[in-house]
Fold this sequence. Notes:
- The protein has about 400 residues and is α/β, with parallel strands linked by helices.
- Helix content is about 35%, strand content about 20%.
- The strands form 3 sheets. Strands 2-1-3-4-5-11 form a 6-stranded parallel beta sheet, with helices on both faces.
- The longest helix is centred in the first third of the chain and has 16 residues, at about 70-85.
Amino acid sequence: MTSPMSKRSLLKLAGLATLAASAGLVGCGKKEAAAPEAASGASAAASAATAAPAGPLKIAFAYVGPVGDAGWTYAHNAGRLAVEKEFGDKVKTSFVEKVPEGPEAERVIRDLVGQGNTLIFGTTFGYMEPMLKVAADNPNVKFEHATGYKTAPNMRTYDSRTYEGAYMAGVIAGGMSKSGVLGVVGSIPIPEVIRNINSFTMGAQSVNPKIKTKVVWVNAWFDPPKETEGAQSLLNQGADVLFQNTDSPAVLQTAEKAGKYAFGWDSDMTQFGPKAHLASSVINWGPYYIKATKDALEGTWQTGGVWWGVKEGAIDIVSISDKVPADLKAKVDKIKAGLKDGSFVIWKGPIVGQDGKEVLAKDAVADDKFLGGINFYVKGVDGAVPSSK
Length: 389
């Protein structure tokens, strides 16, 4: 892509012991830069990395959080396990968890190369520069970077269209809210998160055009105390349905205690607030990890970038509560089917910004460059977009 976003801050693990005691969880962090594009003709023309040597393909995953979190890293690890199930003794996988971004990430990735891994996945934005350095020194190793925008002959990027899950959650929220006020606990104010907030709001407005969305930013991907505080603040402002773009179940748990509604994010969080839980927007990394592994095994791996969503089986809305009316479930099912076959487009004009100005003309469809650079709120979202650090 053409416009990188600012780098994310390191994952903060403050409050880890408290959360582990209460829910057995810790969280993870990530960040997106400009939305990755599908591999272009130029990318396709790039030379494929060499085929894997005889014997099991050694695959390693670098995780920014622990595999026991309820969201981002948990979902990536589920994808790793899907690879093991699919390929059996043809592969040998391993992972290193809680790898901070920066110099330490480079050290870990180099160590993974030294262990004989020839396919390495880095699962957070902050690994981009370290992976590029290691890739340059190891041309026969294939590198995969999640949510980044820079590639090399032996390094490609991949991401998921989380905004599709956010939109479907919004449809449910719009039909379930009695106050007409929704609340979102945001992590870092980057286009990825702003796009999700807007999509959630647009989904809700497709059911109730008068819906308003309030946002509280915690400026962290994982900070349970701040997430709890933010969720409670939104409830105090009249929100009766909460959404999040953070990695712990704290928002859902806060809604449960208050007798309000909320959603799971990245993985199915039903168990953390069964009465409050309306549905979970989940990421399934399995299909992409299986494809990448197959490419490496067959010697067809090439550089480039992909951005997968409902169509490819990477995004879904699951465990929809029995409290959600049948007609609302049917609407979500119809949208999901439309996203899968391409007949439904979320970001299609006319779309108006918070200031009342048109940001997407009637019948115009946003391309990935537009989606990757969103830095505005749509009409109906309260407050100003803070600048990212």
